Amino acid sequence: MSVQIREVENVKKMKHLICLLALLAACFAATAQESFEYEPAPTDRVRVRKTESFGTRMAHKWTRGMTNTLTGVMEIPVQTGKGFDKGVGMDGGALDSTAGATVGLAKGIWYTAGRIEFGLFELLTFWAVNPPANQNVGVNFDGRFPWSRAEQIRNGDVVSYDGGERSAEGVLSDFGNKIERGAGNFVFGGSELVYQVRSEQLEGENGSVAAGVGKGLYYWLSRELSGLHDLVFFAFPLPVDNVGPAWDIPDPWSYVRGPMPGEDSAPQPVKE
Fold it and tell me: Which of 132, 166, 255, 260 pairs with 150 at a CA distance of 20 to 30 A?
């Protein structure tokens, strides 16, 4: 009798835990849905964050990380349903839908792994700076969140995106871009120290070498973490955008010996 009572209590505890996790996920999702501001890029559907506050961006990064970690498993039913509706191009009716659902199931498992992995990464590194975006750097998710429609309109603007179909050659190229970015940041991330110190020296009396050293070390560590992540998880999908604070330029190693941004013949930093 006591064993049955204990089992009933365990079931009740499990139900309460599931309800609590669902409530937390809903809260995080609602917060993330309302807190992202996007503006259209000139040649694609990628949305770039407008928020300037470092702290705000860190909060958004943590929020999205938590949301993807808790809700990433939703990709399995979502992608299976998309595959069922889309099929694989066969003229077999039910057979086509079944094949599409099978492909969607595999894609859903892959996307689930990517969302949970990237969500945990953002949770652990919410304090670090990151690249402004990930378009064509690895395979991108087909929505901001698992439940996002490809063309979801709000306030006259598209708040999610449709990455479209990529050819096998394009996917391999995207994997290569992710590996290349990861290797560059991991191997040459230390150039941030030189770049930030030189930036402070260019400020003259208003600059501080100590501040440049501090910022350089912070950016250096961030690049090492980002680069290592890109290299280890190059085959995992990731969001098309990054919501955390972004570093100043894509390649500080270009300015270790050459002219700095703003000086003659120096390429200008890429704006977010």
Answer: 132
